[in-house]
Write the structure tokens for this entry.
Amino acid sequence: MSLLTVQNLSFSYGTREIFSGVSFAVEQGQIFCLVGPNGCGKTTLQHCILGHLRPQSGSVLIEGKPLTDHTPRDLAAQLAFVPQSHSRSFPYKTVDVVALGRTRRRKPLQPGGDEREQALAVMERLGIAHLAETEYTTLSGGELQMVLLARALAQESAMLVLDEPAAHLDVRRAQGILLLLAQIAKEQGRSILLSTHDFNHPLLFEDEGADVKMALMEGGRLGRAGRPLELLSSGCLKEVYGIESRVVTVKADKERHYLAAWAETDRGKENI
């Protein structure tokens, strides 16, 4: 049984259709990448899966059980969310924000000593323990993204739902987070549903030996899906986005793959 099953899901804001007929499944320990341009509906789809938005039709199943049949505590055990943007209203200490990921395991909302210790352990793993006593309203965008990821990891849910997790990070920090996610999926068996517009992210996961699938989302539809290297080597970007592409192999610490893409213009081929 799949951990997450999305069946024929459709959503509209009034008369404006965002996506329609979306179906896919995510297995335990699998990284599933929703890849597509900005504005194609990836974030809205994630919010429907999380129950933040109600789709017009279709269903979302968690371990075969409809999303609406789960209690909030049950859902917290299954799904942890890292948004692309977040409003910071109160000057909580950063460690307490991370510790809030542990609240599903205890009744009081105020984190206790154990929750703080566990939060610090997660922050140490992410290399942000030095921010523990910092007011999180003073963090940079990249630091905040790391804190939100730490909170999700502290929640210890079966699946991480990540909306453009590397969007605010520098190249080194972004690659470190992607490598950590691959490790978490492989070693802990946690599933990851990740949205991105960078085709190299699923290729990195595959190079790291993770069980990874990617699906192309464009124009409100979920198109071709499969293993990243096979899918991106098939010329599918020409069909879906009208761009030329080639997967390049680089011999580094291990064999790594990167996508080179370019658009056709009146002047010929222009790198993008």
